[in-house]
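Changelog note: in this version the structure field was regenerated for every chain. One regenerated record is shown below for reference.
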Amino acid sequence: MTGTRTQLSFDHSMMALLAALAGTAFLFVLTRHLRDGRSRMAKRAAFLDEVQTLFSDGLKKLNPDGFPRISGRYLGHTFDIQAVPDTLNIRKLPTLWLLVTLPEPMPVRGTFDLMMRPRGVEMFSKHAELPVQMAADSGFPHDCSIRTDAPRDLPPRELLLRHIGILEDARAKELLISPKGLRIVWLAEEANRGRYLIFRDSEMGLAPFPAADLKPLLDDLMALRADLVADAPEKLT
């Protein structure tokens, strides 16, 4: 009996020790997870900090997903820059898109929306909702889709062709011309393939987007605006 009591006491002690070790390990993992989570959120929130230096009178807010949205004036015009994650498309890697918008009235009567490599699941765009699909002739990229709501009121073909060079970059996704403004959608980042396939880790935006990569997009939209105004100045309000 004495031996049995000793063994039971030893077993209880071991169980208590194991429970204590498990509890300590759990607290360590939880603390590290919370610390890492705060670090990731801080880096995500700073994703557009370098970009913001291009603007005067800049404003910044965080969307519910923790990614920033900024607005500010560049060469006398107000731009809106938004980072939008796409993690819903199960057929491809999670993607972080950059929406670069010049939200000013444009002297056009209809919407021209050119989407590169369309999949029909572009959650950041209303491309698929536009009623008219147009055939892209040989001057346009072969792997694009063009849709509009006013096929007879589009800018001249020659004007459009002067501004599609930006779409030759593999990161370019969409060029939008509408009465309410202009937009370029740009691939900012994709999730790491290895981490995503093995651990389903879709974390993106941990390094700031370079201001030097955004500036050409701003300049392209400014040049497009100038050509639209020059082509039809009487329509500008």
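Spot check on this record: Residues 1-45 form one domain. Residues 28-36, 196-201 have pLDDT under 50 and may be disordered.
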